Amino acid sequence: MHSQQPHCVFENTRPPGYFGLNQETVLLRPGMQLILGDFHLTEQRNFDFHSSRDVCEFVFVLSGKFQNRLCGLREDVNIAPLSASLWMTPGLEGHHDCFPGADIRFVCVRIQRSLLAELAGEYLGRVPEDFRLVLENKQDRLYYRFSRMTIPMQSAARQIFQCPYPGAMGKIFLEGKALELISHLMAYHFGGTVEKKDPLRKREEKQIELARDILLEHMETPLSLAELARHAGISETKLTRGFRKVYGASVFGYLRNHRLDKARMLLETGDMNVTEVAYAVGFSSPSHFTRTFAGQYGSNPREYLRGFRHHS
Question: Are 287 and 295 in contact (CB under 8 A)?
Fold first, then answer.
């Protein structure tokens, strides 16, 4: 690493990796590792990699630009600065093309699927079925999601590179930050309860749940926030604050993620083309759907479908 390193002692063991000697690996606990990259390139470089089938990887790119070429996928996957991704694979090989210029700085939390399932506990009842089935090794296929890094994700990732403690205390600090990153990304994609000092009343919780049900019932032609609040019998302000508290996302952010989940499942069934799927889940046009889908998953619907068919 070329800049400030955490004070922690890195492990000599190197699991299936990304950037050879340019990365450092910290064994946080059995089944959980932190992989850090912080280096500068003066010319374009290529790094071979392979990814284990029994892990889930949470990747956060603070700076640098990559182009991933994965065996079995026809299209390259472009990774931009300040992007986050979640990967579970049936075992992939490929290589990264890294471009010179900006410093390359990333954090990858690699965790055994069984350990993640154990830590998630009852939360698995909230996640989409396709994610849960792959996580529990009941389906053997490629699963990945892309997003922009939120401010909390950026903060946690940067703090990892400024670990203030040596030795065992440093590992405790880094494990906390790694778990924080996992929780931020899973909550972004799947929703989550954010505890506050002013917990919701039972009546308000039921109203928020009713609003969610109404929102999804009218997914193709959504109600306005005012209409949704009126149908649920709650004020717009309480609906907005309560929805984020319960589901970890804004009302329409949650709707967008649900639409994209539904769209992905419809594409995978093979019964509808991209245009039909776009209108089925409520997008105003196929082009809007394509842009939104690519922003979430890192590839447009047709590219995603080609990759899915290859691995299914």
Answer: no
Domain limits for position 208: 202-247
Q: What is the pTM of this model?
A: 0.58
Looking at the structure, tell me whether residues 125 and 89 fall in a common domain: yes
Phi and psi, residue 227, nearest 5°: -65, -40
Query: Which residues is 70 bridged to in the sheet?
Result: 94
Residues 294 and 162 in one domain: no
* Cβ neighbours of residue 6 closer than 8 Å, sequence gap 6 or more: 26, 36, 160, 161, 162, 163, 170, 174
Q: Do 25 and 174 fall into the same domain?
A: yes
> What are the backbone dihedrals phi and psi of residue 206, each rounded to the nearest 5 degrees, phi first?
-65, -35
> Residue 246 in contact with residue 200, Cβ under 8 Å?
yes
Whether 3 maps to a domain, the answer reads no
How many percent of the chain have pLDDT more than 70? 76
Q: Which of 58-62, 101-105, 173-177 shows the highest mean pLDDT?
A: 173-177
User: Backbone dihedral region of 130: left (phi > 0), alpha (psi from -120 to 50 degrees) or beta?
Assistant: alpha
Quick check: helix, strand or coil at residue 202?
helix
The arrangement of strands across the sheet holding 143-148 comes to 23-29, 32-39, 104-112, 55-63, 83-88, 143-148
Q: Give yes or no: residues 151 and 40 share one domain.
A: yes
The C-alpha atoms of residue 18 and residue 15 are separated, in whole angstroms, by 9
